[in-house]
Amino acid sequence: MNLVVNGKTHTHVGNGSIEALLDEIGAKKNHTALMVNGAVISSNDWETATLKENDQIEMLVFVGGG
Amino acid sequence: MNEDILKIGEQELSSRLFLGTGKFSSTQAMIEAVKASGTELVTVALRRFNRDQAEDDLYGPLSELKNVRLMPNTSGAMNAKEAINAALLGRELSKSPFVKLEIHPNPHHLLPDAIETYEAAIELVKQDFLVLPYIPADPVLAKRLEDIGCAAVMPLGAAIGTGKGLSTAEMIKIIVRDANIPVVVDAGLRSPSEAACAMEMGCNAVLVNSAIAAAENPSAMGAAFKTGVDAGRMAYTAGLMPTSEVAVASSPLTSFLSSNG
Predict the structure, then answer these.
(1) How far is residue A14's CA from residue B107's CA, in Å, rounded to a whole number?
(2) What residues of chain A lie within 8 A of the CB of B45, using their CB?
(3) pLDDT tens profile A19-59
(4) Residues of A in contact with B60 (CB under 8 A)
């Protein structure tokens, strides 16, 4: 399944769950916040969310900032 | 025991120094400065995950700090919609009600977009955030943001990262005089004496990043800002003497040498 993750095309080979995608990308679950197609998906809803072809995903982490 | 508690919404803080976590030479230097400053509230930014820059991820180091709450910022947002999304994303990670609402689309001066900030604040208040907007030192805007339920206002002392101090002091004084919510000077401060000055003016806290992160010794500067903030706050609560247009002697001017009295 082709996705766009942080602006780059990504071929997902897992089961389409958010957790599978995070594992595939190498992002830590509790360090990462997520948007799919412009909507914030709470980690409480990750288990039930299913990704689909061409979804646009933003994966964000905390970095230093003022 | 510190009885001088700062309340922001229902959150209570005994330190009036808020720290930004950007621009430090290393995560370790940032952590040491946070500890030395005594801060209980630090700001963080959100960026896209990059596996090649995993060391930039501050979630782990920050979650190990005791007595420090996180205030995600909305840096990078160009408009209200992006800022609202950034706030929601930040809350997912911080598990904290605080959000530093900042919308400054022009990279040349990084000055806040008051209109987008106001619109975003309305929505974020509805979504139960403690909204601390970074704003121009505009007393009218500050009051409008108070009226819609912001938890505090954060007028700039000078443009972000310039170290030009309290260039907006006269406007900040008006904001402080009229405010019923905490006023936090955010941006522009370079020295602990400027932080002390802001506190003497009646500001409730200051937010400092560059002045500490870009110091030769960030940890020592964190401690120096703590002392400056504490001194300024103590002076404010002690009540500064009134000023006078004419000299008022401190020593008796009579009954001495040439005087017969």
Answers:
(1) 40
(2) 62-66
(3) 999 999 999 999 999 999 999 999 999 989 999 999 999 99
(4) 31
